[in-house]
Amino acid sequence: MTPERYKKLTDWLEGHPALREGIILLNRWLPLVPFVCYPALLLLLNLRWFAMLRVGRGGGALDFMQVIARAILVPGLAFWMGTLLRARLNFPRPYEQPGFVPLVPKSTRGNSCPSRHALSAAVLGMVWLYFYPAVGVGMLTIAALICLLRVLSGVHFIRDVLAGAAFGLVFGFAGMWLL
Fold first, then answer.
1. Which residues, including other chains, have CB under 8 Å from residue 18's CB and lie 6 or more apart?
2. Burial of 118 (0-12, 13-18, 19+ CB in 10 A)
3. C-alpha angle with apex 145: 179 to 168, nearest 5 degrees?
4. CA distance 92 to 38
5. What is the pLDDT of residues 15-59, one digit of tens each?
6. Which residues contact 93 (CB under 8 A, 6 or more apart)?
């Protein structure tokens, strides 16, 4: 997004202060939803695993324990690989352009692509989708909103959030369904 195009957007948002404040507020708090819900998912999975052990389904419990391990390793590896990739690419952020004033002030330089917020939300959404499809759809919807908010707040280019979301979706799909 060019500084001129973003300025038009922020000027329009100045005329709609409730929407502007809503974007700022959601940009700050919505990313917490996937990260707070992820431990809840792990708790649910472990409760299911303990129930399997108690009922005496030993072989099934062992297989399920391996699936729980994937639910931990897939997001961890995706985040780690995404972090390495963005450090290697070191793309600038939108607000590093002259004349670009983000809606959300930040001082971070570079490391813009892929967006780790988008990547993390997408891969966690895929893990939820694997175990609880209805919740997974909700989490992927939240991931899409996070992508939109990161661009609207001026901290990422569209390319950054698309790359992060695509990386998270593909890694999550491969890790949960193809392994």
1. none
2. buried
3. 20
4. 30
5. 999 999 999 999 999 999 999 999 999 999 999 999 888 887 667
6. 106, 108, 109, 110, 112, 155, 156, 157
